[in-house]
Amino acid sequence: MTQHVRTWDEDRPIYRQLMEEIVARIIDRTYREGEMLPSVRQLASKYAVNPLTAARAYRELEEFTETRRGIGLVVKEGVRDILLKRERKRFLREEWPAIRDRIRALELDVRDLLDE
Predict the structure, then answer these.
(1) 1.10.10.10, 1.10.510.10, 3.90.950.10, 3.10.180.10: which CATH number matches 14-115?
(2) pTM to 2 decimals?
(3) How many Å apart are CA 4 and CA 17, to the nearest integer?
(4) How far apart are alpha carbons 70 and 91 in whole angstroms?
(5) Per-residue pLDDT of the chain (116 residues; tens, 9 = 90+)
């Protein structure tokens, strides 16, 4: 398994950042609904983190996954839409205000941004 070079934000727990990474991979369909997620050891190796950190990230995502005996951890059906809605709300609440203010400060036209 290829190791991802990732710089972790020291101000936030790594397991939360890893959890966000998994959510992003579900949204971009790297991890598809109904398909197996990497094992804890595979995930830990892939992101060069402690297996306990990977296990904690998966525990935080329990509502979006299910354990299938003999198979492993699987992304639940319908989860992508739920996560997409949640991430859109978070973006509009947490990230968009600063971006909007920066666009206004630079006197950018939104139409020009959409053309880029």
Answers:
(1) 1.10.10.10
(2) 0.82
(3) 14
(4) 37
(5) 566 667 899 999 999 999 999 999 999 999 999 999 999 999 999 999 999 999 999 999 999 999 998 888 999 999 999 999 999 999 999 999 999 999 999 999 988 888 86
| Residue 27, burial from CB neighbour count under 10 angstroms (0-12, 13-18, 19+) | middle
Quick check: 65 and 77 in contact, CB under 8 A?
A: no
Q: For Cα atoms 38, 5, 1, give the angle at the middle one, nearest 5 degrees.
A: 35
Domain map (residue ranges) of the chain: 14-115
- Residue 61 CB burial class (10 angstroms; 0-12, 13-18, ≥19): buried
